[in-house]
Every structure is written in C-alpha cells, then in structure tokens.
C-alpha cells in the first residue's frame, strides 16, 4: 500500500495530472530500457575481462534505478520494497530458497528426463568455467538487480499504472521467465517459471526485497558455486 505522503501533490507548479502522466511515461521508458541488452552492447565478447565489464555495467544499472526512485520520483527506496532486513527476511528467504531447491530437483530429476529435455548445452559449464570470485559476483548481482527490477520496481510501479496488483505480478513473472530464454534455451523456461513463481509469490506476500534477494542468492549460489 502506498503511504499517504507519497500521494500528496508537491508544490512545484506542475498540475497533478501532468505529473502523473510524466511519471507513467518515465516508468514505462525505464522498464523498456532496462530490458535491453545494454551490457552486451557496451561490452561485447566472451573473455573474462569482457564478462567482468558487463557485470560492472549491471551495477551501474542498479545505481541508476535506485537514483531514479530517489531523485527523479523523489520517493523512498522502501517504495519498491527495499527496507532494512529483519530475522523474518532471513527466515522467509531461506524458506523460499528451500522450496526452489526442492522444485528444481524435481524438474531436473523427473520432468526433464521424462520428456527428454535439457538446458542449452554448455550453458552451465560456461558459467562454472569462470573463477570462483567472478561467479560470486554474478550471483550477488543477479540477486540484487533482478529482484530490484522485476519484483520491486516493476510490480510496484505497474500496480500504480494499471490498478491491479495481480496483473502487474503476472507481467513481471512473464518477462522474468522469458528473459532466461536466450542464454539457457527453451527447456529452461520451466525452471525459470517455477523460480519466478516462487519469488513473485514471496514478494506479494512479504513485500520485502531482502527476503527475495536472499532466496535468489541461495538458489543461484547452489547452482553456480557448489560443486
């Protein structure tokens, strides 16, 4: 729920209707821009240096998204669900992580073999071939950027624009799932859809990005850092 202080008109001479339209246009533009493969455009290549450069670009995008909320929208960062974590944040994050581990195990051990499916060949091996320090950075970045963008910003702002939280969540879930198609292949959409459903449900239930980031870090950490 949006606090009253966030809905009060500001005395800057701009009509509230015009401000609302500008805010909607800015939100939609930012959502579209952040869906573009900006890091790939700016730092192409498969070398470790290029991959590290792309990770730096991702963190710049995180900073820009936070700056947009704080200085362009002039709202607190809590308006996208990012607040000081509590013991409940940790508990629910671990619980959601455990649910995803169990679900992924079932998908990989039962569903994939039953239908002759597999992730795109070499995708996981390519990630695991990079140094451990780099994989740690990737896991942290994915947890922070993807949860901040897909769950916090996208769900909250689309809810304001459309008026239906379930519709905003459905759009966020769909875009998050399809974002995994290019690198991981079609079969991985089952995995991404299950993980996206758990993370979306967790955010709708808790509206606490810390829980989501913890859960996201745990599941990616098990996949990329263990073994």
Structural overview:
The chain is globular and about 60 Å long. The protein has 227 residues and is mainly α. The protein has 11 helices and no strands. It has one domain.
Brief descriptors of the model:
227 residues; mainly alpha
How many separate domains?
A: 1
Order of helices and strands: HHHHHHHHHHH
- List segments where confidence is low: pLDDT < 50 over at least 5 consecutive residues: 1-10
Gap between N and C termini, in Å? Answer: 42 Å
Map the helices and strands.
Blueprint: H1 4-7, H2 16-35, H3 38-42, H4 48-72, H5 87-115, H6 123-128, H7 132-162, H8 165-178, H9 181-184, H10 188-206, H11 209-225
Helix pairs in contact: 2-7, 4-7, 5-10, 5-11, 7-8, 7-11, 8-10, 10-11
Structure summary:
With 227 residues, the protein is mainly α. It is built from eleven helices and no strands.
